[in-house]
Write a sequence for this structure.
């Protein structure tokens, strides 16, 4: 049975495939500390905004996420919440990133968001995200719930 969520007077299952690209295509995600901290920040976003990152995958210059969302948020609002909070927190924790990215922005403008239906479609997207690799050690973060 899919992970159906409950809210006041509604039952829902909304999933998005998100892709965010680092500004200037900088290869920030070769740094394991950045990857680990981004995961922590997304856990905090989940607690406040009910946006559950189910699966994540990193390449050196972009991140893929399969994210469950509450129906109160439009797709553009989901992007806005995730990009703004992750950028602010990454800059606070790692000020050297801001110096490396000349304009002081972590993410490139825009991004990708697509709806994902449960079943075969979600399984295909989940596997695709899990196969994202990074140069060097090819570290992958699989299901977000794994420690």
């Amino acid at each position: 049975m899919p992970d159906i969520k409950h809210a006041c007077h509604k039952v829902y299952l909304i999933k998005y495939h998100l892709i965010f690209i680092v500004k200037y295509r900088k290869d920030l995600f070769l740094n394991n500390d950045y990857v680990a901290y981004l995961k922590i920040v997304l856990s905090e976003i989940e607690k406040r905004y009910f946006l559950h990152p189910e699966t994540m995958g990193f390449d050196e210059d972009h991140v893929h996420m399969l994210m469950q969302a509450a129906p109160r948020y439009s797709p553009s609002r989901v992007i806005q919440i995730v990009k703004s909070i992750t950028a602010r927190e990454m800059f606070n924790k790692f000020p050297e990133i801001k110096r490396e990215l000349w304009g002081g922005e972590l993410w490139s403008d825009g991004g990708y968001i697509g709806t994902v239906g449960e079943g075969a479609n979600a399984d295909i997207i989940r596997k695709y995200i899990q196969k994202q690799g990074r140069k060097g050690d090819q570290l992958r973060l699989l299901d977000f719930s794994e420690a």
Observations:
- Residues 133 and 140 are 6 Å apart (CA to CA).
